[in-house]
Amino acid sequence: MAPPVRIMEVCGTHTHEIFRLGIRKLLPKQVELISGPGCPVCVTPVGFIDEAVWLALQAGVTICTFGDLVRVPGTKMSLAGAREKGAKIQIVYSPADAEKYARLHPEEQVVFLSVGFETTTPSSCLSVKKAKEEQLENYSILTANKTMPGAYEALKGSADVFLYPGHVNAITGTALCESLTKKGVSGVVAGFTAKELLTALAVSLKRYQEGKPFFVNCYPRVVTAEGSKEAQRLVDELMESCDSEWRGLGVIPDSGMKLRKEWEMFDARVKYQIPEMEGRANPACRCGDVLQGKCKPSDCKVFGKVCTPQHPVGACMVSNEGACSAYFMYGV
Amino acid sequence: MCVGLSAKVVRISDGTAVVDAGGAKREVSSELLEDLEPGDYVMVHAGVAIAKITEEDDEETDQLMEELL
């Protein structure tokens, strides 16, 4: 019998698609799939929610945000709780919509909650650039943008093979993942359709059994070696890397992005002098362990009982891309 | 929020593209992609077309499986 292998789905959408397509049931039992940290809402720390709540209630700004952040619990309350206390929270589909809202409502101060990985960061940068062109003084962003390389390093002991998030690689290219093989880290870039996921898993198993660290791009219709030069240039023009806190993983050096000094009039932290927040998560919640692949959602005491999609205790139950939400939805 | 959407480009004007994703039309930014034309397929993330793609996954997966077996 082949040796056991742990494959980590870095991307939350992979976790959900693998469940939805019933792929888990097809796998032999020595193949263990672990959910990783690839849901931006899930890895955003409690302190970030506290900052957003402070902006909404104390600074009186209008918060524009992706919908799934609204119900993530902060130390005292979520943004939904702040809304009950009179805060103005607008749900938007994209940063461009937030910038447009600011343009149409010059009487309001508008802050977009800029969470996301390499895929979403260019979109935030485009909105800031546009706000500058239009000389908007009422638009800024609260950054919690994250980059994946530091997380791969932090998690390299948790899995034997990474299913790399295809769309992150569409932006960044594949050089970094290729170079990780030198550090003994194996992985494949995976797409999102049934065929693409099965192919990526088949390639992973075959190559893993060969015994040497490997990298394969199994999503070449979207991912090229060099990635998107335009997106890389744009992000580099506006942002620089910084240390960043990940829920469950702690602070990872150089794993975040913030606006450069010359763009700081669009940085909500600078603009509103937000006090430092030390967010505290509910001690019963094990989202941190789930995000590191240390436990399954169903190992958490509150999972499915106190913590449900209707009444989430932790971030992984809130977002549709969260591992706890997937386990709950597909009845594992 | 982080889900990519594949869509077909219907119209382009001045950094903006109207795309069709399974019948739903939506305006997205096309500023990151040069030489985009109506009929092309793109991957959309948070309102921005981030990559040009081919329509079907068949070819790539078939080729990878062939190499494997």
UniProtKB/TrEMBL annotation, chain B:
Q: Which Pfam families match?
A: HupF_HypC
* GO molecular function annotations of the record: carbon dioxide binding; iron ion binding
Read off the SUPFAM superfamilies from this record. HupF/HypC-like
Xref: Gene3D superfamilies: 2.30.30.140
Q: Which residues form the signal peptide?
A: none
Q: Name one GO biological process term.
A: protein maturation
User: Which PANTHER family has this protein been placed in?
Assistant: HYDROGENASE MATURATION FACTOR HYBG
Give the record's family classification: Belongs to the HupF/HypC family.
Database matches in NCBIfam families = hypC_hupF
- Can you say what this protein is called? HypC/HybG/HupF family hydrogenase formation chaperone
In the UniProt record, what gene is named as encoding this protein?
A: hypC
